[in-house]
Design a protein that fits this description.
heterodimer; A: alpha+beta; Immunoglobulin-like; 2 domains; 4-stranded antiparallel beta sheet; B: mainly alpha; two-stranded antiparallel ribbon; 5 strands
Chain lengths: ~260, ~300
């Protein structure tokens, strides 16, 4: 049996239990959202970007007063496999000694909410929709059985949070009259190219009532794109070109210098 | 002004890179060394991934050595025959080095390899250079002290496959230059250096080449080996960053002009002591990084497509 599918199977078995009707479902609440821009261009002077996520809640009946409304916005970058290393002292020096392989971890992940996540989302719904950062990281079931696997995934989240690549922005979504909401998500300069996904969840009593999903295209443009593509698709040509450019730059600059000095002296 | 580096995939201040290239260029102008052994660790410190730093470092060396090689060729201070033998060794070494680099990259040990190589080589070279220049300084004060004989017979002269090198006035086995070339090639691939700091003493003391052709010949070998290493890194690790290289090169050329002027005001012995101390300082800095418990024990390495 394929161990990779094992958690998914467990989830499937648990689904009937998870899908109990939630308060507010009868009011037919639905979330509609949009982004300030669906494309992010990485140029030579790219220092990061900000994306405004805004929307409204459509409903057919007045909102139920008893259950607090939750809005969760997640923005995730393309996932990729990676290895987390831990250093250990071996023969007096610190070397990478232990590792954990992660099958897929988003290169960027931001969660923005209008209230503390725990108050507006219950654990089983988080598991189902993979909303929190911890749920977004996937690893082989067998690998996670290692005793200290938690230390490694924690380190991944911590390291990426330091670079602003993983963000937990609790309370950053502003909600007006339980209808209009908006938030902005910071994209740092250190972005990986690819298709990003924005998801917006509407919850009541910790259960997801409605969700909306849209794409953000992050791509290098102009010269940066051309260089990156050339380096990966025609590496030999790229290598030769780098040499030629290097020689021209070095030779050109020193010739220019000699010329300038010759004129002044 | 921030610049996005397309291969390193980070955004760095253009002035920081120009300044970095400038400082290293200044030092290389002062001391007559390529400066690769300084630029690669400095790139690590500003957050450039080690594979990109090493590969781009070799690309930068090609540029900074090019005009020097032309000057030496014009002055006929290049032993082309010796240079070619060193080059054959260098290409073999570089090919092996790039393979080893790619292999250790997948094992997560590439940083360790690079750091240990730096500590080992810089430590030995820095120490030898310091001793030698202190001795030279002492000799300069006592002019009647006995000098060492230049052309003495050693085990090197007993090896087979002898070849005539007219420019250097030598008739020796091709094995030592091939081996020296190979070692330098491996260093170039792993450390992102030209290897002049090891090749020049080896050519003088091991092969016994006349000093006037040593620098030109080593530069001749370096330019082809680093060029080859750049292409090997570009095709196996996709790690050469053109934008980063150009910024370092332009900064380096400006710095070199300043460095050359400073060097004319200092004595050769003093310069060599300064260089030795600098080499030892870089060595100690990297060694401390390995010996002191790091604040962050964890690190992330991305697995790119095409790598196992």
């Amino acid at each position: 049996m394929n161990f990779r599918r094992f958690p998914a199977l467990l989830l499937l078995l648990a689904l009937p239990v998870l899908c109990t009707p939630a308060a507010g479902r009868e009011t037919g609440e639905e979330v509609i959202a949009d982004l300030s821009h669906g494309q992010v261009a990485i140029t030579a002077s790219f220092v990061g970007s900000e994306i405004l996520v805004f929307g409204a809640i459509k409903r057919e009946a007045p909102p139920p007063g008893d259950a607090p409304l939750g809005i969760i916005v997640t923005v995730s970058g393309p996932s990729e496999p990676l290895v987390i290393w831990r250093k250990k002292r071996v023969a007096g020096i610190w070397v990478n000694a232990a590792s954990l392989k992660i099958d897929a971890a988003p290169s960027f992940y931001a969660v923005s909410t209008n209230a503390p996540l725990r108050q507006i989302l219950i654990g089983s719904e988080d598991l189902r929709y993979k909303i929190s950062i911890r749920q977004a990281i996937q690893a082989y079931w067998a690998n996670l059985l290692a005793l200290d696997a938690g230390d490694f995934t924690e380190a991944l989240v911590r390291l990426r949070a330091e670079d602003d690549l993983y963000q937990m922005n609790e309370g950053q979504v502003s909600l007006q009259a339980e209808t209009l909401f908006r938030t902005s998500v910071r994209l740092p300069a250190k972005l990986v190219e690819g298709r990003y996904m924005a998801r917006i969840f509407l919850t009541r009593k910790g259960r997801v009532l409605s969700s909306y999903q849209t794409d953000i295209e992050v791509r290098k443009v102009g010269l940066e794109r051309w260089i990156f593509n050339l380096a990966h698709q025609r590496p030999l040509l790229y290598g030769l070109l780098s040499l030629v450019i290097a020689i021209i730059a070095g030779w050109g600059a020193s010739t220019a210098f000699r010329y300038l000095r010759g004129q002044s002296g | 002004m921030q610049v996005y580096l397309p291969i390193a995939e980070i955004s760095v201040s253009a002035f920081l890179l120009l300044g970095l290239g400038g400082i290293v260029g200044m030092l290389s102008g002062m001391f007559g060394v390529g400066g690769g052994f300084l630029i690669t660790p400095l790139l690590f410190f500003i957050g450039v991934p080690p594979p990109v730093a090493v590969a781009t470092g070799t690309n930068q060396i090609v540029a900074s050595s090019f005009s020097a090689v032309l000057a030496h060729l014009k002055r006929r201070t290049v032993d082309l025959r010796m240079g070619s033998v060193l080059l054959v060794g260098g290409l073999i070494g570089a090919a092996l080095g790039v393979r080893l680099f790619a292999l250790l990259h997948t094992m997560g040990q590439v940083d360790l390899l690079v750091q240990l190589s730096y500590v080992g080589f810089l430590g030995v070279i820095g120490f030898l250079m310091l001793m030698e220049s202190l001795r030279a300084l002492r000799r300069a004060r006592q002019p009647d002290a006995p000098r060492r004989k230049r052309h003495h017979h050693t085990w090197v002269h007993a090896l087979p496959f002898k070849m005539k090198f007219r420019t250097s006035g030598l008739y020796i086995s091709v094995i030592p230059p091939l081996a020296i070339g190979a070692v330098v090639g491996i260093l170039s691939a792993i450390m992102g250096v030209g290897g002049g700091f090891i090749m020049v003493p080896a050519m003088i003391y091991l092969i016994g080449m006349p000093t006037k052709v040593v620098v030109g010949t080593s530069l001749f070998q370096i330019i082809f080996v680093t060029g080859f290493t750049t292409i090997m890194h570009a095709t196996t690790n996709y790690s050469v960053d053109m934008v980063l290289a150009v910024l370092l090169i332009v900064g380096g050329v400006i710095g070199a002009q300043i460095g050359t002027r400073i060097s004319t005001r200092l004595k050769a012995e003093q310069l060599r002591i300064l260089l030795a101390l600098l080499v030892l300082a870089v060595c100690i800095k990297i060694a401390l990084g390995l010996l002191i418990e790091p604040e962050e024990l964890f690190s992330i390495s991305r697995i790119r497509e095409g790598q196992a």
